[in-house]
Design a protein that fits this description.
- 50% of the residues lie in helices and 14% in strands.
- By secondary structure, it is an alpha+beta fold.
- The chain folds into 2 domains: 64 residues; 46 residues, no CATH class.
- It has a 4-stranded mixed beta sheet with strand order 2-1-3-4, with no helix packed on it.
- Helix 2 packs across helix 4 and helix 3 packs antiparallel against helix 4.
């Protein structure tokens, strides 16, 4: 029965985020309002002939962007690698029997069995699981 429901409704997979790209991370770093303010300050300093001040501010901006980019990209890459390695299972009551099922194989009609301290598994928004405690 559960196999038929899985074929009918499909796997319990949440919509994937857009894939991580280096350009998206860089664009996120460059969209920082404080960074834009510093770039404006550097432009004003350059327009008034304060080349040393403009150079210092631009150096600070460049270093800030490089450090932020590096840290953000590394964090996203590590989170994606961890997500790919972790396969979550949950205890369900399926067809009258208690069994462990991978999260992607939970289907409508399964009863998720929870104990104190268990996390409620995430499901697609198109259906809600029955939960027993």
């Amino acid at each position: 029965m559960a196999g038929e429901r899985l074929r009918r409704v499909g796997p319990n997979e949440l919509r994937e985020e857009r894939p991580l790209t280096r350009m998206r991370v860089l664009a996120h770093q460059l969209a920082n309002p404080l960074l834009l303010l510093l770039l404006f300050a550097a432009a004003v300093a350059a327009a008034t002939g304060e080349w040393m001040d403009a150079g210092i501010v631009l150096t600070i901006v460049l270093v800030s962007v490089l450090i932020g980019y590096s840290r953000e990209y590394s964090a996203h890459a590590a989170a994606a690698a961890l997500k790919a390695r972790v396969r979550v299972q949950t205890k369900v009551l399926r067809d009258g029997r208690e069994c462990m099922a991978p999260l992607v194989e939970i289907v409508p009609g399964d009863i998720i069995l929870l104990c104190a301290g268990n996390l409620v598994p995430r499901t697609r928004s198109s259906w809600r699981p029955s939960i027993a405690t």
